[in-house]
Amino acid sequence: MDADKIMVLDAGRLIEFDKPSELLKKESGLLYSLVQESADKEDLIAMARGTKVATTEGTTSSSSS
Predict the structure, then answer these.
(1) Per the structure, how many domains does the chain have?
(2) By CB atoms within 10 Å of each CB, which of 10, 20, 28, 35 scores lowest?
């Protein structure tokens, strides 16, 4: 989720392309579904909202803003 925009493909076809925060607002979207199935969904959602940032070690930390 540490990206300006995300491209979601299904069978090689472009399905979604937008900011992670916007894609996660679409409950019928593919990215939303994938994140909901993830064990890390809370961290992924926080990163998309900018309330958590990824570190170089692959862990996350809270944003100070």
Answers:
(1) 1
(2) 28
Is residue 48 assigned to a domain?
Answer: yes
CA atoms of 41 and 17, how far apart (whole Å): 19
Is residue 1 in a domain? no
- Among residues 45, 26, 50, 51, which one has the least CA distance to residue 8? 26
Write down the pLDDT at residue 50: 86
Q: Which two tokens stand for residue 33?
A: 């579904």
Q: What is the DSSP pairing of strand 6-10 with strand 60-62?
A: unpaired
Instruction: Read off the pTM.
Output: 0.74
